[in-house]
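Q: I have 271 residues here and want to know how they pack in 3D. Can you give me a structure?
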Amino acid sequence: MLENLIIRAETEADYKNTELMTMRSFWNKFFPGCTEHNMVRIIRDSKDYLPQISRVAEYEGKIVGAVFYTKAWIDDGSVKREVAMLGPLAVEPTMEGNGIGGALIRETVRLAKESGIAGIILAGEPGYYPKFGFKLCSDYGITDAEGNSYDAYLCYPLSDDFNLCRGKFLESGDFSKIEDEKLLEKISGEFPKYRKVKVQDGFMQIFEQHLGVVESIQEDTYNVRYWELVIPAKLSEKMESKPEVGSDVQFIWNHQGESKITRVVKNLLEE
């Protein structure tokens, strides 16, 4: 983890910086653009917001991460039991690989336990959260609101009371506002206009890999532009075609070793 990383409560002076960082964190992850910066603003205005356990990460005077919590419920058909919902968890993309997300999770799990919260529920990356102690909701008899189970639905029991939580997971009703296109357009107009990329129809869910653009090629090294960074990468052995300068590519960013381009992609928005 970074030395001198500060995990603290968010202040009003942080709001715009947190929203911009969140926007950058989720940009083009699930579909062209993102809605998470709008989600953060909706959460702050919600009666179900849990600011006492939500936190931001600050490094060298800049907001480089944030995690937000809201009240949620498990409904077994007769009783609704309150839990906390984690999300979004955002990390500045140019600062990935420095343990920022883990530091936010560990600190806020501690705060949630001290606050007497029975447990935490989230819908997120199944390859990431279990390393911090999260388990499948299906192992605890918890489904989504429609009764479905997915590997992305995870939970963190914090007390014996969580063993009573069985049934359907219900998030705050304020999350329905995320679908408001006019609200999203309004907040997005307050921030820089980033390039939108669509590499497939429907839900993209690009988690363990990243999208970048080849900026230059030096022999067998491809320099990939990723936000303000240029990351040297080699071609994966499974590559079917070689990228050119200007090609959109999907790549694995190895923070301790050699990064790999896994495929050339087409931005369907620019065809």
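Q: Anything worth noting?
A: The chain is about 15% helix and 30% strand. The radius of gyration is 20 Å.
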